[in-house]
Design goal:
This protein is of the alpha+beta class. It contains 17 helices and 23 strands. The longest helix has 14 residues, at 389-402. The structure holds FE2/S2 (inorganic) cluster and fe (ii) ion. Fe (ii) ion is lined by residues 260-261, 264-265, 413.
């Protein structure tokens, strides 16, 4: 059943861990699942073959029951295979174009465990390199974001042009001899860099599908972000990065787990509603809580290639930071798309590492694995360029309220997920149940997807 929609309140984690779903449909061998998901029949996998047949209890078709053994969140061999197949051999989100908008601008990040940086070239193109010196491997730019026409390694001082060309070797004259050829030591460029609507992605190896093919149905949901301003989106300056004591799969799954919202975030809702009542908050500063309160139309789509979306109609669309743009959006786009943009909140994961969230505010997040049971998360506010000051003000205040680690909700998410990971040590209990909503899952697009012209 490759195409499915699931009511979000009873969403099914089974579909949000596509790698593990894939494993169940083959013979339980991890490398086959990667072949199936990414179509990478030419991949070679050097690691051990991992038999997952005793870690997955898949009776979804027959009994609507699906369980995963908790060891999948802690096993170092599974982790190593995931790092390779779910991250390092596929397209990863690297940065937004607004973070490298001028020649020389660079942004450092990771693809799986491999450090990379993106740099805007003098000719306007964008390249990405392994963030490691060609001499003895030191990190070229330990600074996350900046601008430089050349980058100089801090270890022994070799330097590189924006293009990756090695242009300076300390004591080259006299120290290295006539046979030394500096051109052998340019930075290693990654195989692919491409962008979609301002979101820049990269892949380390040649054998990946096109970015367009990788994103597939997720493009509709990226467009709902990118079209919020005629000038595109921008990352608001500043970000927060935090390390979590839970597995990357737990973090990724939570993106489209609508089931936790009414419990984990009830405290957020009650606090915000009490504050708004006390302060007579009106208009754009009112926070959307329809998803938390429940009772709004909602759903979840599996979009293929690991991408997923969860959505819920807004109970107070007039409070959305995009509300001042209502007239323009209704003029510019058809009724269905305008409805999705203005009156329907969305949370999507672009597999494996990008999260775009448009609910009370707009927020972008990335996660990367740091080991079995550990991951790192970075969050930003992403916003339409040129929006009115009052909209930007409201967007930022709501971003702080919910998403900053000092806010009221992210901390609750992290604690919930960390305690789940801690609970996985209860090995004797063995299994986690993930069959929520399987009996309500339908194949192919539902009515809302059909109207939007998407094929989840
Ligand atoms: S490691 Fe970079 S110059 Fe030596
Ligand atoms: Fe949450």
């Amino acid at each position: 059943m490759p195409f499915s929609t699931i009511p979000a309140e009873v969403g099914a984690i089974r579909m949000s861990i596509p790698a593990f779903h894939g494993m169940t449909t083959q013979d339980g061998m991890l490398h086959f699942c990667a072949y199936r998901i990414y179509g990478a029949s030419a991949m070679s996998y050097e690691g051990p073959v991992i038999d997952l047949s005793d870690r997955i209890d898949d009776r979804a078709e027959a009994d609507h029951e699906f369980r995963l053994h908790r060891s999948i969140f802690e096993d170092p061999y599974i982790y190593d295979a995931e790092l390779e197949f779910c991250f390092e051999r596929v397209w990863n989100f690297l940065c937004h174009e607004s973070q490298v908008s001028n020649p020389g601008d660079y942004y450092a990040t990771h693809i799986g465990n491999q450090p990379v940086f993106v740099q805007h070239q003098e000719d306007g193109s964008v390249k990405a390199f392994l963030n490691t010196c060609s001499h003895r491997g030191a990190i070229i730019t330990p600074i996350k974001q900046g601008n430089a026409s050349t980058l100089t390694c801090r270890f022994h001082g070799w330097s590189y042009k924006c293009s990756g060309e090695c242009i300076g070797v300390k004591n080259e004259q006299g120290g290295y001899g006539d046979e030394f050829d500096r051109s052998h030591y340019d930075l290693a460029e990654i195989a692919h860099v491409d962008e979609y609507r301002g979101f820049i992605f990269g892949a380390l190896y040649e054998d990946v599908p096109t970015l367009d093919g990788h994103l597939g149905e997720a493009k509709f949901f990226i467009d709902l972000f990118a079209d919020q301003s005629p000038d595109g989106m921008e990352m608001v300056a500043g970000s927060q990065t935090y390390v979590c004591d839970h597995d990357w799969k737990v973090q990724a799954d939570n993106v489209t787990d609508g089931y936790h919202v009414s419990t984990v975030h009830r405290n957020f809702m009650n606090t915000i509603l009490a504050r708004e009542a006390r302060e007579n908050t009106e208009g754009l500063l009112k926070t959307e809580v329809g998803r938390i309160k429940g009772g709004v139309k909602n759903g979840m789509y599996y979009l293929g290639n690991g991408h997923m979306c969860i959505w819920a109609d807004r109970s107070s669309p007039g409070g959305a930071p995009l509300a001042p743009a209502t007239e323009r959006i209704e003029d510019e786009f058809d009724e269905i798309k305008a409805h999705w943009m203005l009156r329907r909140g969305r949370n999507i994961i672009v597999f494996p590492n990008l999260v775009l969230n448009d609910l009370a505010t707009t927020h972008q997040r990335t996660h990367r694995p740091l080991g079995p049971g550990k991951c790192e998360v970075t969050i930003w506010c992403i916003a339409p360029k040129g929006e009115p000051d009052e909209a930007r003000f409201a967007r930022l205040r709501k971003f702080e309220d919910f998403f900053l680690v000092s806010g009221l909700s992210t901390s609750d998410d992290v604690v919930s997920l960390d305690t789940a990971q801690e609970g996985f040590h209860g090995a004797e209990a063995g299994w986690n149940n993930y069959d929520r909503g399987l009996s309500t899952m339908c194949a192919g697009p539902d009515e809302e997807a059909e109207k939007a012209g998407i094929n989840p």
